[in-house]
Design a protein that fits this description.
The chain has 460 residues and is α+β, with helices and mostly antiparallel strands. Helix content is 44%, strand content 10%. The protein is elongated and about 90 Å long.
Length: 460
């Protein structure tokens, strides 16, 4: 009598013991439920395995997933009972997503560029196809995208990083070899940037964009499920271990060194970042028309419109005395006239926008002998100083312009300000309790408290 052993939906129709499955030559059978219909196959026959082939459980599970993908693709290209939206490909989703979600008037140009870059990478990535082939993700049906495809994208990105690292090592070995006189240097193409944490952070951003795109398609009614979840359980997770918050703050003497070695333009930006907590882009895009003054024509407020902020929310920031002095020095152009309202506050001498300060910042840090300091770290320094001065967390959130206060909490997790204050309060309370405990009560106080009076000290 034959016994049917089941394992994760896979079936062995033989009498072999369970422990012998990995070496058993009998074929695996599978039943796949899709759209209310069950599809049954022998994996050995379906994938052309020779007689006596020993298929491991891992290989059987992989082939079962591949077979499921094939069935879904066949359904998506026109089999009866399938809705027309199931014929949409990922390339169709990319086009509609760009049109209706990315290219909208309220979206900042930098955000649009980042989204377009991620979408293009996803569109051109190869994923597993039928019969162990590779297909472009853009040509694959939305309904046929599975967890295996998402993991294939992650694997491809990691392999690309390894290829770049190997090419770097090869070039370093070539450069270390003795040079031959008269030999023409080989022209090399620049290598792609690896990004932070060996490209893992960028991989997280890529998968997060894919997840949002599919969720957007679900909202549009194109698909009913996402490959990131199965029956409500998350099956594809981002690697949060690489998302460690940056903890860099200014060390003693670094602020003075930055201001000492900075050129006038960069000095003003450093002062503005430490006085307002604004992002680099918010400062570079700031025009004189965004500044508000009082009846004495002194600068009092910075008004950032929704289009100037990362979160698309307007923000009003007070101007302190230190920043006010810097603004007064930048108020006039080389001809001695006030800059026009549409000119940039932190632009060049004639008020034109400065495209980037990356090179200038690296040069400044080198002159000031400061290592591992980003301009964005000045924003964290400002927020930490606010907390140190006793500001509430929600006030700090208003200054930074975070959409959610939880972002502010994560942003300042590295600042031990509140922990230091908690220790100070605990020590103060402990000192108070000790003083109270060590102070003997007088006879009247003890009698009022119903306690025996302290015995007089007889050791004189």
């Amino acid at each position: 009598m034959q016994v049917r052993h089941r394992n994760d939906g896979l079936v062995k129709r033989c009498s072999c013991p369970r422990r012998a499955w990995t070496k058993c030559a009998h074929p695996w059978h599978v039943g796949i439920q899709i759209g209310g219909k069950e599809y049954r196959y022998s994996l050995h026959k379906r994938f052309g395995k020779p007689p006596g082939y020993e298929m491991t459980k891992t290989e059987a599970k992989s082939l079962r997933q591949e077979l499921s993908n094939q069935i879904r693709e066949n359904l998506a290209v026109g089999m009866p009972g399938v809705s027309p939206d199931a014929k949409r490909t990922f390339g169709d989703l990319c086009d509609e997503y760009l049109k209706h979600h990315v290219r909208v008037p309220s979206r900042r140009k930098t955000a649009v560029a980042a989204m377009k870059r991620h979408i293009e990478v996803l569109r051109t990535t190869d994923v597993p196809g039928p019969a162990r082939t590779r297909v472009c993700l853009a040509d694959k049906s939305l309904a046929a995208i599975t967890k295996a495809d998402v993991e294939a994208i992650r694997t491809e990105r990691r392999e690309a990083v390894q290829r770049v690292l190997e090419e770097k090592r090869r070039r370093a070995e070539e450069d270390a070899k003795p040079k031959v006189e008269g030999q023409t240097p080989v022209q090399r193409e620049p290598l792609p940037r690896l990004g932070k944490k060996g490209g893992e952070v960028e991989t997280n951003r890529l998968l997060a964009r894919l997840r949002h795109m599919i969720n957007w398609a679900i909202g549009e009614g194109w698909v009913d499920e996402t490959p990131f979840k199965r029956h409500g359980v998350t099956v594809v997770k981002l690697d949060r271990r690489v998302e460690t918050p940056r903890q860099r703050r200014l060390r003693p003497g670094e602020e003075e060194s930055l201001l000492k070695h900075a050129a006038p333009h960069l000095r003003s930006l450093v002062v503005a970042a430490l006085s307002t907590g604004c992002r680099e882009g918010e400062l570079l895009n700031l025009c004189w028309k965004h500044l508000r003054g009082d009846d004495k024509e002194r600068f009092r407020w910075i008004e950032l419109s929704a289009g100037q902020t990362k979160t698309n929310e307007a923000r009003v920031i007070p101007i302190g005395s230190t920043l006010r002095a810097e603004l007064e020095m930048r108020r006039l152009d080389p001809a001695g006239k006030e800059h026009k309202p549409e000119k940039y506050v932190f632009g060049n001498a004639v008020g034109e926008r400065v495209a980037s300060i990356k090179t200038a910042w690296r040069t400044l840090c080198r002159k000031a002998e400061i290592e591992d300091l980003h301009f964005h770290d000045l924003r964290r320094e400002f927020a930490c100083r606010l907390l140190e001065a006793g500001a509430a967390l929600h006030d700090t959130r208003e200054f930074l312009g975070h959409a959610d206060i939880s972002t502010t909490s994560r942003y300042l997790r590295s600042a031990p300000v509140r922990l230091e204050k908690a220790i100070a309060r605990m020590e103060e309370a402990a000192t108070g309790r000790t003083n109270v405990a060590q102070t003997p009560k007088s006879g009247d106080q003890a009698e009022a408290a119903g306690e025996p009076a302290a015995a007089p000290n007889m050791l004189h």
